[in-house]
Amino acid sequence: MAPGVRRRAGGLSGWKGFGQIGRGHKITTYPFSPRKSGRKGMAQSQGWVKRYLKAFCKGFFVAVPVAVTFLDRVACVARVEGASMQPSLNPGGSQSSDVVLLNHWKVRNFEVHRGDIVSLVSPKNPEQKIIKRVIALEGDIVRTIGHKNRYVKVPRGHIWVEGDHHGHSFDSNSFGPVSLGLLHAHATHILWPPERWQKLESVLPPERLPVRIQED
Q1: Which of 63, 54, 5 lies closest to 183 in space, CA to CA?
Q2: CB atoms < 10 A from the CB of 85, how many?
């Protein structure tokens, strides 16, 4: 789904078995006469099994690419690890991890807004995905926290991202503005645990408002 997030995406559940026959189910029987040889009856049975397996495999291999395309292009779910987005995500610390819905479709044109929580490929480790909040867009001037420059103007085609838990987040204050090309998805909902189910709002903390906002 999930081809998520510091930090890394979680897995997908498996299938339940099928083929059990219970009361009320209709089954198709094939005639078998005891007068005919057992070999012929066995051949008929094997032929039916082969036809069934062939039809099932054909449908399965058609469905799998569709599922992969959905996970890659539309949405997937991921488990959030770490404390960098507390209290918005994982407020219980190591006691529990939030599972979020990642919407790939919403960022297909690199359209993000200040306050959005997004997942992106780590600029320092391309095999890792991190989840942060968008603080500033291209052209904005942001007041940094611990960066080598007190103020930074976000260059074209970049965004400035931070974790909500300052001091426990590896973000733009460490690696600078992030290219829009590293965007992975927009985190829109918390799906698990059940008591944490909610929509993730695009809210920018007042103290982290850009010093100057670029007019659209």
Answers
A1: 5
A2: 26
Burial 128-147 (b: 16+ CB within 10 A, else e): ebbbbbbbbbebbebebbeb
Q: Which amino acid is at 104?
A: H
Per-residue pLDDT of the chain (216 residues; tens, 9 = 90+): 444 444 333 322 322 322 332 333 332 223 333 444 445 555 555 565 566 556 545 554 444 444 444 556 788 888 898 889 999 999 887 677 899 999 998 888 888 999 999 999 999 998 899 999 999 999 999 999 989 999 999 999 999 999 999 888 999 999 999 999 999 999 999 998 999 999 999 999 899 999 988 776
Q: Give dist(CA 192, CA 80) in Å, integer.
A: 10
Catalytic residue numbers read: 84, 132
pTM > 0.85: no
Angle at 200 between CA 194 and CA 203, to 5 degrees: 150
Which residues, listed in sequence order, are joined to residue 132 by a DSSP beta bridge?
118
